[in-house]
Amino acid sequence: MSTTPASMAAIIGKATPRIDGPLKTTGAAEYSADFHFDRMVHAVPVSATIGNGRITKLDTSAAESMPGVLLVLHHGNIGPLYRTVPGDDNATNSEVRSAFEDETIRYFGQYVAVVVAETLEQATAAASAVKAEYAAETPNVSTKLGDYDGKRKSTSKRGDPDGAFASAPVKLDAVYNTPVETHNPIELHASVAVWDGDNVTMYETSQGVVNHRVVMAQTLGLPVENVRVITRYLGSGFGGKLFPWPHAAMTAVAARKLGRPVKLSVTRRMMFSCVGYRPHTEQHVKIGATKEGKLLALRHDYFNNTSMLDDFDEGCGEATPILYSVANLEVTSAQPRRNMGAPMWMRGPGAVPGLYALESAMNELADQLNMDPLQLRILNDTEKDESNKDIPFSSRHLRECYEVGAKKFGWERRTTGIGSMRRDGKILGWGMGGASWVAIQLPCTAVVEFCANGRLCVRCGTQDIGTGTYTVFAQVLHEKTGVPLEKIDVILGDSGLPGGPMSGGSMVTGSVLDAIANGANGAIKRLQQIAASTDGSPLKGASLETIALTGGRLHTKSQAYTDGAHFADILSAAKLARVSAEGKTTPSWENPKSKGYSLHSFGAQFVEVEYDPEIARVRVSRVVSVIDGGRIINPKAATNQIAGAVVMGVGMGLLEETVYDHRTGQPINGSLADYLVATCADAPDIDVTFLDHPDPIMGEYGARGIAEIGLAGVAPAITAAVYHATGVRVRDLPVRIEDLL
Ligand code: MOS
Questions:
Q1: Fewer CB in 10 Å around end: N or C, the chain?
Q2: Is this prediction's pTM over 0.95?
Q3: Where does the record place Basic and acidic residues bias (predicted)?
């Protein structure tokens, strides 16, 4: 890495390999389940084998007498665990009920006990020897959400959608279903708890260490200072690891009772019951339009299932009110309860299933009007956020996404007839969809520190979910100081660090960069003061405005930076180990700059499928994805995010679905062999383009953050392409072979 001024200017927007890459590829990066401690023992949960009812008898005696078994925890002996206090310290939990709180079973796989033994094998064997008896009732895991006649709330309304729909010359009225999808990060959820007196350190698979700490403190009834949560590396989470799940408290209690470190690793099968999923959605969309395709009315009424105790609104109407210009609109939502675990945000929650319905309806409307779906969207594009007093968007280039994408894809070569496009004996289908995702700057504090050993460091209580967060932060420090990347330490993933945001909502980059930049500016200023006031410093006596920092060296602006003094030498001359400063990000809701603006990213997806009619096989062969995500800090990591999301979109369109047995409530395809996620072999040729227009409202760098938006709009483009190839309109995801026979 060169330290010339040229490299400083060039690093923002430069494809930069992950600074943590070598640690990951050599196995040196410690994921939560990699932590080992002296005298550590292993916990294995016991899962309910009914989906509804209660425990009538729990016999742990056989398990307790097995070799190596130290403890079996359950409702009868876990002792007090508390629910999270709503609104207190902003603690957000996943399940409202604490572990083993009562003997009622509300979903299949709910934990009924946890066995702790000297070895994992002993704990696993003993867990299978715990005998539970139940009074079982039939669970309700019905996928007919539309039967629900309970509370329905209006989440966005303008004009008179029903009147305008009734009188519209062209009408589209359709129902779309998305199935339960389970988060399948490769890294399993895990907890390792280590007590020291009344203090506990938890090595967690957490997308939010700061929140995790507060929730654990409340659950365990401890002062917040007594809990420390560490997540150095994450093998992703897709939202499943945003908030704590019951296994974390079970691990902490077991470790405390035994006075030994305890590790619990959730199995893949348990991950289909106990750590969240994207709920099933049933979405009713009505669009009224003129014969020319101008939208007159839009209704989006959705249901998503929630669990028996948790109120989880998927938020399918997140993008609906802002994507198009339409005077009459309403979005409503309702949440029928099912005997299933708590749903949880999953990559692009709300907007992704919501846009599947909305964009499918737009594609169907285009077909009905005999209109190009691209033209229909451009005709109905909006420059204002019509859901919010017609305020402007901070930066909206959706139309450019459509136009750039169409050009790259070759959309003008599309012929409209069903099955009219062919290549190498296969039928081609082309489809497209729009995408959007909300942006916001969350509060954040970061501390930037120059050290006398020549290293530069930033500390922040956020974490890297695996997307390149470490690298992007280092890029900003390099840009500010010219210190080479290999001399920069990015310290994240510890709840004891200055408070940072969750790795969620694609919001870390947009939220943290300002805090780092402000911290760096502050630390540089202090360094300049020290340089100007320290005996032995070549800059002694220089006025502060004349001192620059380039390539890690302090120099006067009239001097070549190579003639300046390295910051480490200045610190040594001043006999200082380090100089640091704290920087903050002002959250959007407190920032006068963002008042009066609607903040969103946008995108367009163009999809080609190849259809082999002989065997009814659909394969997504090509995707062009154009993203307007503000300024892109690291195009390599960003492209990786969008390409990964597109592959997940292939899964959403063609493969992913968690199926529940209606007799028992059991997720019956709860393994990576039976639950199909898109693999490399399913991945199409993917062309990712970023428009790279800095967002003038999103802080110093204008980055809105990207990731989840790459999934939005892919599935409706796939179903449109499938229709184009086959003439079969699939409104229930995923598209199955049997739909096409
Ligand atoms: Mo994402 S669903 O906010 O981890």
A1: C
A2: yes
A3: 146-161
